[in-house]
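Lecture notes, unit on protein representations.

Consider one protein chain, 296 amino acids long.
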Amino acid sequence: MNYDVVIIGSGVAGLQAAIHAARKKVKVAVIGKIEASALSKAHIENYLGIETSDGSKLLETGAKQARHYGAELFPEEVISVEMSEGGFIVKTDGMKDLACKALIIASGISRNKLNVEGEKEFYGLGVSYCANCDCHFFKKKKVAIVGNGSNAAVAALLLKDYADKVYWVAKAVTASKELMEMVEVSSIEIISPAWPAKIVGENVVKGIVLKDGKVIDVDGVFIELGAKGAADLAIELGIIADESGSIKVDRECRTETEGVFACGDITGQPWQMAKAVGEGCVAGLNAASFARKEVE
């Protein structure tokens, strides 16, 4: 599937970028689940011209506008991004490969946490939120992936090529059918329904204790509770996020990697809708212009 511009994230920044890019008459795709946006559960009362508004309704209207101008929306999760000759390939959990000339990262910065004992204490000492970043540290070791969805499945499939043993702990497995077919023929051991009560160890992670009292001995715990984080995607594109997980952009919303733009919360504070809308506009226009130049 070939596009001029692919936008990762269907929050307010991503949808605004889609509207402006599509109006430039380029082929645009948006990947992301609207309900996963932080704005979907927000009540808006500080945006110019809107006294009060429900975030989910605003996003639904934005999605309708983006479609009206020709953007295609895919309510899926991104599992990887890679550079290709003349652009980028974005892979989704629905097994779609979307090729594009320009890429916009608008997926926010939140990392969902387990909020259990030991998670904070062992962060960086066996607890990780990025399988791509840390898989090399767990060669020939035992690891647990915690999460229900497609990104937990992707992390488990990645770690099986490094670790001696991979456990996938889930309340209920909700990964895509295509990914589950790959998991089921692998050595990954699914433990479900189950959920961690705490992470234990001495200086480093030694195991997890499940809510039913069962103890699993592991050297690492990879927490995959949501869509792939923008910082993870940035790493795959050679972009280094700062300590807060933010990506540096210039006034044109360009990142350090040519053809990659970013907008919204991922570019830093303030984390406000007004900033996200403005940056979405800038990123959408400039990504469209870049894609047109590359096509010509």
